Amino acid sequence: MDAHGRGRADDMDPADQWVRDPRTGGHEPRLTPPGLPGPRGEDARGGTDAAVRGRTPAARAVAPRRGHRPQPGRGRRAAGPRRPRARKVLLWTGGTMAFVLVTTGTAGYLYLKHLEGNVSTTDVGDAGKSDFSTDEAFSILVIGTDKRTGEGNEGYGDQGSSGHADTTILLHVARDRSNATALSIPRDLIVDIPDCPTRQADGSQRVVPGLRGVRFNRSLGEGGRDPGCTMRTVEQVTGIPVDHFMMADFNAVKTLTTAVGGVPVCVAHAVHDKQSKLRLPEGESTVEGEQALAFVRTRHSFGNQGDLDRIKVQQQFLGSLMRKMSSGDTLTSPAKLLKLAEAATEALTVDKPLGKVGTLKDMALELKKVPTKNLSFTTVPVRDNPAETVKATVVLDESRAPQVFDAIRDDVSFTEVRARQRQAAEDPRDARAARLEGARAPASEVRVRILNGGAPAGSAQETLRWLRTDKGVTQAANAGNAPRRLSRTTLEYAPGQAGQARALAGLMGLSGAALKPGESVADAQGQPAMTLTLGQDFRGAGVSLTAPAAAVEVEKSTADKLTCAS
Question: Cα–Cα distance between 301 and 364 in angstroms, integer?
Fold first, then answer.
């Protein structure tokens, strides 16, 4: 029986395959396939040699495992390893094969200690988080480069390219894990690239000057820009905090699709693309290796033959790959899983915090909580660049993009837009506000220190001025920058300050989840004060943080359905 008590080894999620270490009393990942001898005479099911000592060979061959009940109508199988099936795998690919490690982590953490050595890491400094939290929303920037590395890739991408951001997806996972959004960012989107501190090979730092009004794909590779530069650019454009990155090249598409025996795709019409060399009949086909790479790179056979239509095809492919990875005939043995993981991780580069096996395990287990039907693929809303006569680039659609960015940052599921609209019509009040009901202290008695923990520069002083001048909170003080960046604004208070906390939450529009019972800190007068830390969700003094985000309808696809590329 696995850690969740499901009772059958062949239904076991490999991410749950942990064994108890009798020396420490803790649990460690099982690195040996079930049924094979493990270290110190222990087999992969957690039993020792002593557990079977004394039985005859015949008895050992047919004896059921402890806790396993033979199913009616099922005969006993010969001795040998039981083959676990992965129930749930969150993965997509294309130029974005960086999600491979997420898949192998979710479906087989038992191999991660070995695989960790395959993964390359890049130090992006403060462009992302220095750790991973299991109780917060998180965003991973997935980058597929056009660098011609790997055998057989000489004809792809731009000759001599240092590796531009050819395919980029920002994956945002909601705090409650109820939904996730994969936001594609067009490579031809015109953006401003900020100055970018980079770490050189000799350990020194170099700031790569920013660029104004250029294609987004230049945020990587050119001029020595690393993935941290792309992370900074995405955060500047969208306002969505980017916590980590994963990056891979062409090889990952070919090796992974081959390892799983091909990926089902569908086209609305026959395709014979001379440039990508993709040939497919109308309807459903299975692609792998070079054909899979050709499918995700093709743009002249779909839609208006532009990058935006290629993005839609990639999104459809990624959803199909995820379904294939979670099907019963894919991850059927530890040997297959190991082969798949080896091929995938060799093409992968991540930020340093994600290079730690513990972080990968935590992230993988959080990702598997997201229902596939609530995993939405969509694209940054754009329009043609009005400065061009011959249309080659796009710019943000300012009438729609801000609402999409806000919805993603606020954990709004694009698969539940209509439900949110009905809920807002029936009860516009934030349900979490019920936690704040109770006596509130007068504003003049509220004593609080304000820290900036990820909000725009000057936000702490702006909030201080607003609280004092407009709200009568005269005992507030600006305490500078917080020691670490937070994605969400929080208010920490001591038990005796609950009335003050409710009062300040009401003034600022803080949710009950933002209130953190804890300790007070002495202010400049030596009096106990609460601590308000403005996070990356802070929108400005006087702007409520519990106002329901506007329900936004976008063109999207979901990971649970097969659609045909047209």
Answer: 35
Identity of residue 93? T
Rounded CA gap, 308 and 381, in Å?
10
- Calculate helix-pair angle for 307-325, 289-297, nearest 10 degrees: 140
CA distances from 266 to 247, 506, 521 (A): 27, 52, 61
Angle at which helices 334-345 and 100-108 pack, to 10 degrees? 150
The closest of 433, 427, 408 to 551, measured between CA atoms, is 408
Query: Which of 487, 499, 497, 562 is CA-nearest to residue 531?
Result: 497
Read out DSSP for 520-556? -EE-TTS-EEEEEEE-TT---TT--SSSPPPP-----
- Helix (H) or strand (E) holding 491, with range, is strand 490-493
* Rounded CA separation 414/128 (Å): 25
Q: What is the pLDDT along the chain (566 residues), one digit of tens a residue?
A: 433 333 333 444 444 444 445 554 444 445 444 444 444 443 433 443 333 334 444 433 334 444 444 444 444 444 444 444 333 333 333 333 444 444 444 444 455 566 677 778 899 999 998 888 888 899 999 998 876 555 554 454 454 455 889 889 999 998 888 889 999 999 999 999 999 999 877 778 899 999 999 999 999 988 889 999 999 999 999 989 999 998 888 777 888 788 778 889 888 899 998 888 889 999 999 999 889 888 888 878 887 777 888 888 888 888 777 777 666 555 555 655 666 667 667 777 889 988 876 676 688 778 878 887 888 889 999 999 999 988 899 999 988 888 888 888 888 888 765 455 444 444 444 434 444 567 889 999 999 999 998 888 899 999 999 999 999 999 999 999 998 878 788 999 998 898 999 899 888 888 777 888 888 899 888 999 999 999 888 888 888 876 544 456 677 777 667 788 87
Amino acid at 223: G
For residue 527, list its beta bridge partners: none
> Residue 287 CA to chain centroid, in angstroms?
26
> How far is residue 219's CA from residue 209's CA, in Å, rounded to a whole number?
11
CB atoms within 10 A of CB 434: 9
**What's the sign of the alpha-carbon dihedral 239, 243, 248, 253?**
negative
Task: Record the tokens describing residue 451, joined without a space.
Answer: 């820290």
Strand 138-145 relative to strand 244-248, pairing: parallel
In the numeric block, the tokens 């080896």 are attached to 342
Query: What is the maximal distance between C-alpha atoms in the chain?
Result: 85
